[in-house]
Amino acid sequence: MISRPKLVVANRKMHGNLSDNRQFMESLLRHTQQHAAHYAICPPHPYLYQAQQLLQGSHIAWGGQNMSRFERGAYTGSVSPLMLREFGCQYVIIGHSERRQRGHDNDESCGERFEAALNAGLTPILCIGETLDEYEQGETDLVVVRQLNPVISHVGIEAIAKGVIAYEPVWAIGTGKAATPQHAQAILSFIRGHIGLLNEAVAEVTTLLYGGSVNPSNAAQLLSMPDIDGGLIGGASLIAEDFIQICKIANQLTETKLAA
Ligand SMILES: O=C[C@H](O)COP(=O)(O)O
């Protein structure tokens, strides 16, 4: 068992339908099998039952795209961590910029939900990253620390390793303009270093992902960076062949790491 096998997560956002999801998941099951890398798919919530039916007992995990910090109650339109667990979810995405930008999520609520996810036995995938303006002002480090610190304060540094952190520069999401492997590596190394200031062992084992216009052509370069432990894939998870290619790249890199 190596530390930090590559993890590839499909964030299908608000896309897909029953028949398209079925084709996607069946294709993934057929073409990836049990690999050294880890794979997960986060469909829109109504399709979690379908994911459970198709993926249960397989090597592919599934998860939600968001969740409430509450277990139950009068929160119309929300989904609780217990509900995600009941549908077999292993993962849940927290703090995606598409939710932060619309005012649904903030740094403080991410801490609460990161904790609620862990309490429910889910692995939270915390999304952080700067806007274009912040990037141009050279504020990336400040922003990721501002987004990460409330979560660390809320759950304690040891709990950070039980989740996953995804660095997703907002300017790279859905634009076709991925961060360069050097930029993504520099920021993820900075994030690992920031965690390491508090606990080196936690920093060493925490899974860090990059997300933002990852596709089959740039995945190998991005995912071979030492601090990039995988990808959170949006657009390229809508086409099964593209996503499978990224999974295979991640697997090859994991096998190389295993053999080293
Ligand atoms: O969660 C996934 C990210 O928002 C990346 O999306 P993208 O691959 O379409 O840029």
UniProtKB/TrEMBL annotation:
SUPFAM superfamilies in the cross-refs: Triosephosphate isomerase (TIM) (SSF51351)
- Regions annotated as coiled coil: none
Q: Where can this protein be found?
A: Cytoplasm
Which one Pfam family would you cite for this protein?
Answer: TIM
Q: Where is the active site?
A: 96 (electrophile), 168 (proton acceptor)
> InterPro entries, from UniProt?
Aldolase_TIM, TIM_sf, TrioseP_Isoase_bac/euk, Triosephosphate_isomerase, Triosephosphate_isomerase_AS
Mind listing the UniProt keywords for this protein, alphabetically?
Answer: Cytoplasm, Gluconeogenesis, Glycolysis, Isomerase
This enzyme catalyses: D-glyceraldehyde 3-phosphate = dihydroxyacetone phosphate
List positions binding substrate.
11-13, 174, 213, 234-235
The pathway this protein participates in, as annotated, is: Carbohydrate metabolism; erythritol degradation; Carbohydrate biosynthesis; gluconeogenesis; Carbohydrate degradation; glycolysis; D-glyceraldehyde 3-phosphate from glycerone phosphate: step 1/1
Q: Does the keyword Membrane apply?
A: no
Give the transmembrane region(s).
none
Query: Which Gene3D superfamilies does this one have?
Result: Aldolase class I
Give the E.C. number(s): 5.3.1.1
The principal localisation class reads cytoplasm
Q: Which GO terms describe its molecular function?
A: triose-phosphate isomerase activity
Could you give the subunit structure recorded for this chain?
Homodimer.
Which PANTHER family does this one have? TRIOSEPHOSPHATE ISOMERASE
Q: What does this protein do?
A: Involved in the gluconeogenesis. Catalyzes stereospecifically the conversion of dihydroxyacetone phosphate (DHAP) to D-glyceraldehyde-3-phosphate (G3P).
Q: Give the similarity note.
A: Belongs to the triosephosphate isomerase family.
Q: What is this protein called?
A: Triosephosphate isomerase
Read off the lineage from the record.
Bacteria, Pseudomonadati, Pseudomonadota, Betaproteobacteria, Nitrosomonadales
